[in-house]
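Worked example

This section walks through a single chain of length 374. The input is the sequence exactly as stored; nothing has been trimmed or padded.
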Amino acid sequence: MTDTNHLRRTVLKAAGGLLLASALPRTLLAQTAAAVQERHFDPKPGEWKSYEVVTQVSLQRAEGPSTVWVPLPALDTDWQRTLSNNWTGNAKSVKVGNDSRYGAKYLVAQFDGSAPPMLEVVSRVQTRDRGEDWKKATPGGESAEDLRLWLRPTDLMPLDGIVLKTANQIVAGARTDEDKVQRIYDWILLNTFREPKVKGCGLGDIKTMLETANLSGKCADLNGLFVGLCRAVGVPARDVYGVRIAPSAFGYRELGGKPAALQGAQHCRAEVYLKRHGWVAMDPADVTKVMRQETADWIKDPDHPIVAPVRKALFGGWEGNWMGYNFGHDVHLQDSKVIGKVGFLMYPQAENRGEAYDSMNPDAFKYTITSRSI
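Given that input, the structure is written out below as tokens.
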């Protein structure tokens, strides 16, 4: 694949984005140098790790009948095994909803209002790291019909107009799908940035991002843009919606979750399908997160020693400290009278008295998510 390090350095220097080390106190420089030397991020497929993830809902301010939807892990792949989903609570009825197009599963719990709504969902999964061996061909077994789904537009991810125009400009002259994906990945790192003030994981409205030239956001925005640009130029791609369930084994604070409090740890990743390699892991949004939030300073050079190992590894890999729920877009929630359809499903949802709860405000909702290694 094409090495674009020189291009990155040239562009970033021209933009004035390189850190000015000479302006930093010597003691801070020494501390930073020591931290840089210790940084390592290189996930590789290996042993499976088992986790139990518990989502507890105690719906606030509920009067009369109400409905709660909780996403369920429903993936069985070479990087995640879903072992079980169980639930308890005082719901009048509970059933499993299913999105027929993408296979997303979720619990539908209906409460009659006779008591404060309480629900606990216990999921058990096994996960492991991913890391692509680019020197070795490992073709996937997807058919052309299977892949067609991952080339379609969605409500938040149109593939025409400014999306198509931008994608074509990025990949102009690229000869292979691998080259196209590399260019789009690098373009995301050079032209977008993590915005911590964005609520939750963002909206994922990629057309508006491009039209307004506001290329900031969080994972649903940045990885959503990556996936949309790939699809627009004919590379099958998909978002994978989930939640971080454990700290990073490589010491990156921003790439892990706190098991005792995972509400707010939702994170979507991405995959692309390459003929020589099958489905390959991608996560440019997490590279931008490390650049913006891993240190006290906003690192604007993707070749910075703290960022470089993450940038390299997340093109073809990711760490198994994360649980995927589904690949779903435009998910219709069964029995919903208010919400109806969500652009993606990785947060609990709820309705009461004709109003929807804010799924991105767990304290007001209220829900908690915890995990433990088993």
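What to look for: The first strand starts at residue 49 and ends at 58.
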